[in-house]
Amino acid sequence: MTRVASSHSPDPAPEPADRLHRDADPGPGSDPAPEAAPDADPATAAFRELLTGPGRALLDRLAAGHRPEDEIALVTRLRRDHPAELVSAALAQAALRRRAAAKFAPEDAARMFFTADGVEQATRAEVARHRARRMAALGARRVADLCCGNGGDAVELARAGLRVLAVDRSPLACAAARANADALGVGDLVEVRQDDVTTTDLADCDALFVDPARRAGGSRRFDPEAYSPALSWSVAAARRLPVAALKTGPGIDHADLPADAETEWVSDGGAVKEAVLWFGTGLPGRYRATLLPAGDSFLTDATTEPPTGEAGRYLYEPDGAVIRARGVADVVAEVGGRLLDPAIAYVTADTLVATRRATAYELTDVLPFGLKRLKALLRERGIGSLTIKKRGFAMTPEELRAKLRLEPRRHRATATLFLTRSAAGPLMMLGHPAEQPTH
Ligand SMILES: C[S@@+](CC[C@H](N)C(=O)[O-])C[C@H]1O[C@@H](n2cnc3c(N)ncnc32)[C@H](O)[C@@H]1O
């Protein structure tokens, strides 16, 4: 196990390798290769160098950005005063910070440090913040953030007022997590430990958060037993502490959800980001959908099969988190509606009802699907721009769009097209977002 010391000393920083390896005991179960001697690799050594005074100064010079065509001249200038590896690392880091601004507040991203995988794997700050606040509200005080990566979750847990033990086996991830906690002003609340999470000591923690590695060979892992660590390990660890949150992919099979966990699907801006298995909420076996950024959270209630029937004047498209949390029947009940098909998450109703679980559309046309008929309808309505959505329909929006040959310059109207199936066969529905009535 290696404790990663704080790097926010105002003095010129010591050699970063010293800071990381101050407590060099590898500890039981720590992963020896290939990360045990990271500085053998010049790029890795350069990353560490970025955390030192000269490295940070170089990053500051790159903060304003530059035009691609100016890069060669810039590199030539910087190499006069700095080693080539450091210049390359600083340019790469500046690019990672720019990418990270899509997930983190830009003012945070501009001060943070990322490993190449780190930005890719990091939780969006909005999502991490929601989870952290929920954990604090459940009474946690010192949380083990297992598989902390670059520390994005650790920072939000600390900002929610928790003390954090952040653990990762990657020395570089730990160096980044340490630097990030310090850079964002929560260094005192975060202890970073380089270790294997499956053997690390959690003795003084009362809560657990695990965000396992879910990528291998570049492709997403769907089997939760193929996560690192495996979901079964995390569940066993979760059951030993008062509160725990285990992050999984949003597409996790419901059959893999432990009966004693509450599962929360979280979407941000309409895209489902994660499913979290919660222990210690007092709601075992329940499903919840949380919709960010608004923060609305819905426990799935309905237990009866919703009715089905023909399309009415309005179509409600439930948020993906609501769908994953099996809350479509709750939307049907809320809007007094019905499903078009028992297996498809399109809800229809004759009236417009305020709901935060779904987006409502007013339908102008509902017809059996037919390409010629659709082209004629779009021409008649002067529609040149179309948002195409589909559920339970074989053709992809791209395929259909190619066949439609829309002419947005000539036809100025816009519409949303829904392709789906009903008892009567394939269906196309044209409409536009409805003004939501006030709640
Ligand atoms: C998905 S990332 C974590 C991202 C992080 N929560 C964030 O928001 O930045 C998964 C991390 O798990 C770490 N990891 C996987 N298996 C591990 C193990 N057995 N022990 C320690 N770390 C492990 C990897 O090194 C990687 O940094």
From TrEMBL:
Location of region: Disordered: 1-40
Biased composition (Low complexity): 26-40
UniProt-listed GO biological process terms: methylation
Listed InterPro entries: Methyltransf_25 (IPR041698), SAM-dependent_MTases_sf (IPR029063), Thump-like (IPR041497)
Residue stretches of biased makeup (Basic and acidic residues): 16-25
Keywords: Methyltransferase, Transferase
Top-level taxon: Bacteria
GO-annotated molecular function: methyltransferase activity
Domain Methyltransferase: 143-206
Domain THUMP-like: 358-432
Protein name according to UniProt: Class I SAM-dependent methyltransferase
Protein species of origin: Streptomyces bohaiensis
